[in-house]
Specification:
Elements lengths: L1 H9 L6 H30 L6 H54 L2 H4 L4 H8 L1 H34 L1 H8 L1 H39 L1 H6 L3 H53 L5 H42 L21 E9 L5 E10 L4 E5 L6 H7 L8 E6 L2 E2 L5 H6 L1 E5 L9 H6 L7 H10 L3 H5 L18 H15 L3 E5 L7 H15 L3 E5 L11 E6 L2 E6 L1 H7 L2 H10 L1
Parallel strand pairs: 3-8, 3-9, 6-7, 7-8
Antiparallel strand pairs: 1-2, 1-4, 4-5, 9-10
Helix pairs in contact: 2-3, 2-6, 2-11, 3-6, 5-6, 5-8, 6-7, 6-11, 7-10, 8-10, 8-11, 10-11, 15-17, 17-18, 19-20
Length: 577
């Protein structure tokens, strides 16, 4: 399984293979230069100094010039792998970020019902950064370290094979230790990812609801909640740092031990004339080239565990399949009359208690239907099934005689306009918020939609008119103004089917009147579902459906239902009290 994930991760290099190969070439070249430089210095110290002065000076000039050239080559190699290597990592991170955000857009409502936005954001930011660092630094550092390690070992063997063996003895123990501790660090890094996600989720929740926080003067409570999550993160970090501290301490100690062992063994060998003192000095000079890549490999293994932990979380998210997706050969809706039919529909959330069982309902094209009933009986759920925000558990829903599951989702939802109680407006201009209803609309179309929604006057009274930025979630607007912008969006979209989900329940009387008039203008000649708590707003509905826990209890006009004296009459009477 891990090999398969590594293969998938390596596939991200394919679009950048030329840059990757160039990065590897300069990494190899730089590593080779690092090995060659001490050899030239050794040649200079051992051989050239014993030549005749004239020949030695000429050779010295040439060797110093060559050393300077090699230094320039090493500098360029370092620049290339640092700059272009990071560019490659950033491009891969860009692609992965696009992939996971696109995947989020495809997931169904049921997924987001059980997720925190901060956790999802953490996977797009923190995780992907560590993955890109691994993809950039991992291969080049590994190649550089291996070349330096093997090259240095080869040189050391040429100088004195006995001392080289002394230097090599600790390596197997270091590898075994690194393998064992890497597994422990991986577990700790995964835990860190989850904790930082929790912190992001808490912060996002608190800052999004900052007005509620301040209105209840609950800043201290939010700070306490954040500190609790932050403390859990610190405890998680402590665990990972404990492993990292042990890991680095032991490996650094073993690396230093190599130098100490070589110095001790070399001194002993020199006493028994196994090694010349000159070779021992060069050996000790070269041992740094041998131990430095070992330290780099320590960094690579740590970076690998950190980045791979992020990649596993990335894969975990990408493997979540949307609950609702287009069937093969899904049809595109062209002309829509708007006949809607529920046939023996049953539904429940995540296998819980049924919301509907064997519901039958027919709404002819152009009908204006109001849904009323106590909270929790499924009014919003019923309307959410029409655009397939959720899929029915049994039965079918048809539009103009076609099962909506046989339709392309984008096409289906493109024919439905929704105005909700909780309007979501983006931190953008008025113009762009209305244009969200039809992104290719002209400015003139947007303005016409605003006029039809009775929003043009208040928009023009704003400092920059249609170019006014309305703030996060439209905080600079009143409730009625937000609703009229959302209605303007739907006017611009011009769909044949409408859903008004308690669109006026949070408004004052005057705003409700203005918005209701806009809604009635929008609903003309369209199939319309209205969910209403204020029964006074649906007196003129051609058809009122009364839902209870047992399903569809009553149906009729306002007058007929009052005369019947049933559930609707009781709800209406209670609303007047």
């Amino acid at each position: 399984m891990k090999k398969e994930k590594l293969r998938q991760l390596a596939a991200y290099y394919r679009p950048h293979i030329r840059l990757f190969l160039a990065d590897m070439f300069f990494a190899v070249l730089g590593a080779c230069v690092t090995i060659v430089i001490p050899l030239l210095i050794r040649y200079l110290a051992y051989d050239v100094v014993s030549w005749a002065p004239a020949a030695a000076v000429k050779a010295l000039i040439k060797i110093v010039a060559l050393l300077l050239l090699l230094l320039l080559v090493e500098m360029y190699c370092g620049y290339f792998i640092t700059y272009y290597g990071h560019i490659m990592g950033a491009r891969i991170e860009y692609r992965m970020r696009n992939e996971i955000f696109t995947h989020y857009q495809k997931l169904s409502f049921s997924f987001f019902d059980n997720q925190k936005v901060g956790q999802l954001m953490s996977r797009v930011t923190n995780d992907l950064f560590d993955i890109s660092e691994l993809l950039h630094h991992g291969p080049e550092e590994l190649v550089i370290s291996v070349i330096k390690l093997l090259g240095s070992l080869a040189v050391l063997l040429v100088i004195n094979w006995q001392l080289a063996l002394v230097a090599f003895v600790p390596i197997p123990f270091m590898i075994a230790f690194a393998v064992i501790y890497n597994r422990k660090m991986k577990t700790a890094f995964v835990s860190n990812r989850a904790r930082i996600g929790e912190i992001n989720a808490t912060m996002e929740d608190s800052l999004s609801g900052i007005r509620a926080v301040k209105s209840f003067a609950n800043e201290d409570m939010e700070i306490k909640k954040f500190r609790t999550g932050n403390n859990r993160f610190i405890e998680s970090k402590k665990t990972s740092y404990r492993f990292m501290a042990t890991y680095h301490t032991i490996l650094n100690a073993l690396t230093t031990f190599i130098t100490v062992a070589v110095a001790g063994a070399g001194a002993a060998f020199s006493l028994i004339h196994v090694v010349d003192i000159e070779d021992l000095l060069i050996f000790l000079l070269y041992i740094g080239n041998f131990t430095e890549p070992i330290k780099k490999l320590v960094f690579v293994t740590e970076s690998f565990q950190n980045g791979f932990a992020g990649y596993e979380r990335f894969i975990e998210m990408m493997e979540i399949a949307p609950d609702i997706a287009d069937r093969p050969g899904a049809k595109t809706l062209a002309r829509v009359k708007g006949d809607i039919c529920f046939k023996d529909v049953s539904f429940s959330y995540s296998g819980g208690e049924p919301i509907f069982e064997h519901l039958d309902l027919t709404v002819p094209a152009g009908d204006y239907v109001a849904l009323v009933g106590p909270s929790g009986v499924g009014k919003t759920t019923l309307c959410s099934l029409i655009p397939r925000f959720y899929d029915v558990a049994g039965g079918r829903i048809e539009i103009d005689g076609t099962d909506i599951r046989a339709l392309a989702i984008k096409s289906l939802r493109g024919k439905i306009g929704i105005v909700q109680q909780d309007v979501y407006l983006f931190a953008d201009t008025v113009m762009n918020n209305i244009r969200y209803g039809r992104p290719d609309a002209s400015d003139a179309d947007v303005i016409e939609a605003a006029k039809r929604a009775d929003a043009h006057a208040f928009i023009m009274a704003m400092p920059d008119g249609y170019e006014t930025n309305i703030g996060q979630r439209g905080t600079r607007l009143s409730g009625g103004q937000k609703q009229r912008l959302s209605i303007a969006r739907v006017f611009l979209k011009n769909p044949p089917i409408l859903i008004f989900d308690e669109a006026t329940s949070a408004l004052d009387s005057e705003s409700e009147r203005v918005v209701r008039e806009s809604l009635e203008g929008l609903a003309e000649n369209r199939t319309t579902f209205v969910i209403a708590h204020r029964l006074s707003t649906i007196h003129n509905a051609k058809r009122i459906l009364v839902l209870t826990q047992d399903g569809l209890a009553e149906e009729g006009t306002h007058a007929a239902l009052l005369e019947k004296g049933g559930v609707y009459a009781a709800l209406y009477k209670a609303a007047l009290i």
